[in-house]
């Protein structure tokens, strides 16, 4: 969970810098890509955790 929050913080920081500083639009794109990848990986991790329980 700490890794998720750290990557989320980095993505938001890159997005803000990309919007504020003129000519660094690619940082905004990198921040958005990091956010999407982070959410997908977290969803996959939560999905696997739910199926590992044996059915009684």
Topology order in helix (H) and strand (E) letters? HH
Report the strand count.
0
**Quick check: average pLDDT?**
79
| Structural class by SSE content | mainly alpha
Radius of gyration, CA atoms, in whole angstroms? 16 Å
- Our count of domains comes out at 1
> How can the largest sheet be summarized?
none
Shape: elongated
Distance between the termini: 29 Å
Summarize the structure.
The protein has 56 residues and is mostly helical.
Key words describing this protein structure:
transmembrane helix, 0% strand, single chain, 56 residues, DUF2207 domain-containing protein, mainly alpha
List the helices and strands and how they pair.
Elements: H1 2-20, H2 25-51
Description:
The chain is an all-alpha fold and 56 residues long. It has one domain. Helix content is 82%, strand content 0%. It contains 2 helices and no strands. The model has no long low-confidence stretch (mean pLDDT 79).
